Amino acid sequence: MIYIKKSHARNRALTAFACIVGFAFTLSGCGGSSSTPAPAAPPAAPGNIAISGKIETPTAVFGDVAEPDVTVEAVYTDPGDPANPTAMTDANGDYSIAVEQNRTFYLRFSKDTFATLNSEKVAFSNNQTGIDQTILLTGSTQIIINDAFAPQFPQPGLPDFAWLAVGVEDNDVEINGVTISSVPATFDRVYTDCTGADSGQMATSGAVCPGRGNLGAAPQYIAYFVNITGTVEADVTADGVTKKVPLRVGEIAVVEF
Length: 257
Known about the structure:
Elements: E1 4-5, H1 12-15, E2 48-59, E3 63-66, E4 71-75, E5 86-88, E6 94-100, E7 106-110, E8 116-118, E9 132-134, H2 138-149, E10 162-167, E11 169-170, E12 173-174, E13 180-183, E14 188-191, E15 221-225, E16 232-238, E17 241-247, E18 251-256
């Protein structure tokens, strides 16, 4: 699955788009916690804080493994702006980046042949560690989309729409019966069962999958949007809580409640 993760948590929202989704600042992911400390952050200018974590990708044989050369960008307004701090993961998958204290940003994780992930928008007053993420190859991500939206044909393509993946958990256990809404409205959305297929329900499913414990094969909720130009800020609400995420065509916004 794909997650952004804090090392103590697991998030099906992202881990499933790989292990594709779960990211929230809790932030969570598809593997164990990092045992290798992140590289030291560059000296922070007055008013800056350090954000650090580890990026991994799932493999069938070795489990989650460190992913080097992933670009991590703290986006204040638009990706690619020279004002955005950037870093790249080292050979151990570790990164550290300095961001402005109390300024709203989102983290963008990108690498050739991998699906680009965007976190929810956040602001911090103190240094943050364990902001980990699992990323997935674009082909593997499309397979998860195909499974979720079958028998729709053709299945919606990852490059053609803006995507949202959501997980709802309590103490690492997925929660049943939570409805997800967003502004702008989705073009189509699926609540998945533990196998990653359309559950046919109108709310999240937390059913335990044999052999998978409390995490299923896909995000609990996968949605896509049309008529998105540039970056569009979306309000995503679950159980009375609203979070802001960036929507971009060909990329996946991930959020955990």
